[in-house]
TrEMBL record, chain A:
Main location: membrane
Cellular localization per UniProt: Cell membrane
Organism field: Roseivivax lentus
GO molecular-function term, one example from the UniProt record: branched-chain amino acid transmembrane transporter activity
InterPro entries reported in the protein's UniProt record: ABC_transp_permease, LivM-like
Name this polypeptide is given: Amino acid/amide ABC transporter membrane protein 2, HAAT family
TrEMBL record, chain B:
Record's keyword annotation contains Calcium: no
Gene Ontology MF annotations: ATP binding; ATP hydrolysis activity
Presence of keyword Transport: yes
InterPro entries in the cross-refs: AAA+_ATPase, ABC_AA/LPS_Transport, ABC_transporter-like_ATP-bd, P-loop_NTPase
Organism of derivation: Roseivivax lentus
One of the record's GO cellular component terms: plasma membrane
Keywords annotated in UniProt: ATP-binding, Nucleotide-binding, Transport
SMART domains in UniProt: AAA
Record-given protein name: Amino acid/amide ABC transporter ATP-binding protein 1, HAAT family
Matching Pfam families: ABC_tran
Transmembrane segments: none
Domain ABC transporter: 5-242
């Protein structure tokens, strides 16, 4: 496969984890501008585990996801008591704190004669496990795609077991949900843990794909994009945020003629879609219609 | 199926306004208690306190067990369910999904597929009882206000609630719709359940309630059988205003 295409598809896959992370919180009725923090936490944690501690890749990536989930739940425990704009600001503040902390985070150890590990604002390079294991970009893309499909399948299973429905209850009307017996705070914390875990998983995969990460990559704009993916792709199904990533990275960033105008076109696109379809292209109404049609 | 509901010394204040003022009430298991009163007398506050949406002083017991310290969701899990003056449903879910999530909210997540299918069949039966089968796959925005009311009642019925708090079920209904609602309540929702019926229509209160309590400024000013209570000229004046002489 064309190396450029492999790289674009890998990016689409990797940012799909971040988009799904923000989407889960959107279902629960909250906008988080801070999911890039968990992406960063997953990237740094998995990178340190494989590059500094010489853990195997699987354990390193899993560790990034677990840490993302744990910190997601920990932050949500106080933050989930906020709603709306207060929640958005709280998540944004946490993400900026994380980025600022990574800017002064030095943890370098001697690995085979080289100082390896995060070096503050200079970033964290030599996350080389995948390359040293001789895994080419093509097969690594297959790893990303497999994990993404597994996540989508898991979300599909959760939907069948009415887990997603309860989250949607909380998202649409938390007062009614509570009066129907839904433990709203637990669901919000659970959603934040799942979202943190997904972003952490994506971050760990990203660090091993890029081999180099730095705090500046995890800026507010990354988080804003993550939210926008769900909002333009649609909140009705897990395929919505992935459609959003496809539109942004697949279309705007990758078509070289458009690349220079990407932010302008993307911003305009978000505005137009939010006016015409406030819950995105694949919204709940469309999904309900498709379901009713499929049942016939 | 019903559970008794006992309220002792319930007091709720919003700043300087006293919405409920040391209210005592008892609803025996499986009976219907009507609640009437002018606007601002505390009827809706009472429902909001019972569900735990407002925190008030005083005691609330469900089947003898104190519940005033429980969160809203835990009270719902004990079978305490309410309807709203303006029907409240999930606008982004179809009618059948609204039924499904209400029933599943309190139940274990991990169930077999046949179990779920069986439940879906039962939910469609429930919709049929309330005359909504043809609307099962519609979104709530396509429903008339009366149909939304029926959906709320069908939902309360399907959850197997033991205590149902009805907040003005006839609000916005035509004369004919109010009659049909009364019949549905008597035939399907009320049997075996403990019901608190907040209502303005005196004919509905007469037809549906064993006992009637009249509130004014958060206090009980009358209690007894609906006919006895509503025979009092003073109470009728309180509820309907001064009669105008021709």
């Amino acid at each position: 496969m064309d190396p450029y295409l492999v790289s674009v598809l890998s990016n689409i896959g990797l940012f799909s984890f971040l988009a799904l992370s923000a989407w889960i919180l959107l279902l629960g009725g909250e906008i988080s501008f801070g999911q890039q923090a968990y992406f960063a936490i997953g990237a740094y944690a998995a990178g340190i585990a494989s590059a500094v501690w010489a853990w195997p890749f699987t354990a390193a990536v899993l560790w990034g996801a677990v840490l993302g989930a744990g910190i997601g739940a920990l932050i949500a425990w106080p933050a989930a008591r906020f709603t709306g704009v207060h929640y958005a600001i709280a998540t944004l503040a946490f993400a900026e704190l994380t980025r600022a902390a990574l800017n002064v985070f030095h943890y370098q150890r001697d690995v085979d004669g080289y100082l390896t590990g995060p070096d503050g604002a200079n970033g964290f390079g030599d996350i080389r496990w995948v390359y040293e294991a001789g895994i080419e970009p093509g097969p690594y893309l297959a790893v990303i795609a497999t994990l993404l499909l597994a996540v989508i399948a898991l979300i599909g299973l959760a939907a069948r077991l009415d887990v997603m429905a309860q989250l949607r209850m909380v998202g649409e009307d938390p007062i009614l949900a509570a009066m129907q017996g839904v433990r709203v705070l637990r669901w919000k914390i659970g959603a934040a843990a799942a979202a943190g875990g997904l972003a952490g998983l994506g971050g760990g995969l990203y660090a091993h794909f890029a081999t180099y990460v730095e705090p500046a990559q995890f800026s507010v704009m990354t988080g804003v994009h993550a939210v926008a993916y769900g909002l333009i792709g649609g909140l009705g199904t897990a395929l919505g945020p992935i459609l959003g990533v496809l539109i942004d990275i697949g279309l705007l960033e990758s078509l070289r003629a458009l690349a220079a105008y990407r932010m302008i076109v993307f911003g305009g696109l978000v505005a137009i879609i939010l006016i015409l379809r406030p819950r995105g292209l694949l919204d709940e109404t469309l999904v309900a219609k498709v379901r009713a049609w499929a049942r016939r | 199926m019903g559970a008794s509901l006992d309220i002792t010394g319930l007091t709720l204040r919003f700043g300087g306004v006293t919405a409920l003022d040391g209210l005592d009430l008892s609803v025996a298991s499986g009976t219907v208690l009507g609640v009437a009163g002018p606007n601002g007398s505390g009827k809706s506050s009472l429902i909001n306190v019972l569900t735990g949406h407002y925190q008030a002083n005083g005691k609330i017991a469900l089947d003898g067990q104190p519940i005033e310290h429980l969160a809203t969701s835990e009270r719902a899990r004990l079978g305490l369910v309410r309807t709203f003056q303006t029907p409240r449903v999930y606008r982004r879910m179809s009618v059948i999904d609204n039924m499904r999530v209400a029933v599943h909210a309190t139940q274990a997540i991990f169930r077999g597929r046949s179990d779920r299918r069986h439940r879906d069949g039962r939910l469609r039966d429930d919709l049929a009882i309330f005359g909504l089968s043809h609307r099962a796959d519609a979104l709530p925005d396509a429903l008339t206000p009366y149909e939304l009311r029926l959906l709320e009642l069908a939902r309360a019925h399907a959850t197997g609630a033991t205590v149902v708090l009805l907040d003005e079920p006839s609000a916005g209904a035509s004369e004919d719709e109010a009659h049909r609602l009364s019949r549905i309540l008597i035939e399907h929702l009320m049997p075996g359940r403990t019901v608190l019926l907040v209502e303005h229509r005196l004919d509905m209160l007469r037809a549906l309630c064993a006992d009637l309590v009249v509130l004014r400024a958060g206090r009980k000013i009358a209690f007894g059988s609906p006919s006895a209570v509503l025979d009092s000229r003073e109470i009728r004046t309180c509820l309907m205003g001064e009669p105008v002489d021709a």
